[in-house]
Amino acid sequence: MKRILALLLIIFLLGLIPISQGSDGDKKVYVAEIDGLIAEGAANRFARAIDRAEKEDARALVVMLDTAGGLSTAMKAIIRDIENAPLPVIVYIAPPGSYAFSAGTFILLSAHLAAMAPATSMGACQPRVVNPATGTAEKASDKEINAYASYIASLAESHGRNAAAARLLVIDNLAWGPEEALAGGMVELVAGNLTELLALAHGMPIRGSVAGRENLTLDLEGARVVHIKWGVRDVVINHLTDPQIASLLLTIGLLGLLFGFLTPGFHLPETVGAICIILGLYGLSFIGVNAAGVILVAMALVLFIVEASTPTFGFWTTAGVIALVFGIVLIPASDAIYEMPTDWFTSFRIASLVVALAIGAFFAYALAASLKAKRAQPKLGDEEFVGLGGVAMTDLAPRGQVKVRGKIWEAEAEEPVSSGEEVVVTGKHRMLLQVEKKRKT
Questions:
Q1: 276 and 256 in contact (C-beta within 8 Å)?
Q2: How far is residue 45's CA from residue 91's CA, in Å, rounded to a whole number?
């Protein structure tokens, strides 16, 4: 009994000892590196990084951003996640040599703290659209430009940044380095590395609000840095949701089905085609699809089938290649790609042309082979052996054995042939070959 009372007394006294609810050693700052195209993969990474940092009770999340732009739909989803984040989100254009153009700048201006490393750049936010006649990137309509200018200005203003200067990033397509952005009120810090960033950010008030709370001060001194690692799934989704890759996967998949149709009994093309179609549709489900592009690609496949069934010396192949090029270019929905970088349109057009030309070359080769086969005189029975080459396996004086088409045959020669010498078949009688020495040229 005394032992029980002593134990209860110890537990009671321990309960009176104050327990720290957090010390400097418990501080954590999560860091996520996000680069490449702003698409559904990048949006997923932002959402997962914010969720993980919240669960680990981090003091802040630092996103090291390097992007040339991306899809407007993914950009808006990321901005919503930052606006609703339960902890401060610091967007840091880094390392040196990185940039955040187009959609990346919108994300930068929505952050609770915006920072840049030396030798980086931001801006160039004027929206672009695809010209369906040429497949090239062109300036969007004034309506779209004004809409995006108003959007970026509201983002800047709600976070205490220079709204007038932000509008010029869209209207005049300006791009600024770190010092210009700092002087123009676009970012709050220029830091050479992550350690310097955290040291400078400590004690600074956030821009905007976190969970409805404004004027929060960042407490980052002595915080432990935790880097978020991305898995294979994140990398795969990031690539699949690139409109260029998704469109080409869909096209390659349809062509795989076409080749499967043309080569019955050989199941590899249709199997690969089905897999590519599923992956392509998965990626396009996040992007949106232009019906005209899908119809043109389907039309191209029909034209290729017609060419294969009734050869017309390349007429249907040419028409199919033209339809395929325009179909691939038009597949991504136009309302999702306003913030795509200009060089993306160029690479997309080149990739479309390469695929189309490769398919055209394939059908051109098939057509040439078909014509050659039609011109060739058919060989029946024993005649098909005439002219084949082989090697004498034994001495022929006059009879012996030769190897032709990978098989051993009985053979005879009018003049002696030594073992190992090359021979040419001149005739065949039942299972006996007539051969002669191969003449040197």
A1: yes
A2: 14
Q: Could you tell me where the DSSP H helices lie in 93-226?
A: 103-109, 142-158, 163-171, 178-183, 194-201
Q: Which residues are catalytic?
A: 102, 143
Give the integer Cα–Cα distance in Å for 317 and 306. 9
Question: 380-424 pLDDT, tens per residue?
Answer: 456 678 888 899 999 998 899 999 988 889 999 989 999 999 999
DSSP, collapsed to helix, strand or coil, labels residue 390 as strand
Q: How far, in Å, CA of 312 to CA of 335, rounded?
A: 39
pTM exceeding 0.70: no
Q: Which residues pair with 433 in a beta bridge?
A: 411, 428
Kindly state the tokens that stand for 236.
């795969």
Specify whether the CB–CB gap between 242 and 39 falls below 8 A.
yes
Before 95, cis peptide (omega within 30)?
yes
- pLDDT tens by residue, 260-293: 766 665 667 778 888 888 888 777 776 666 777 7
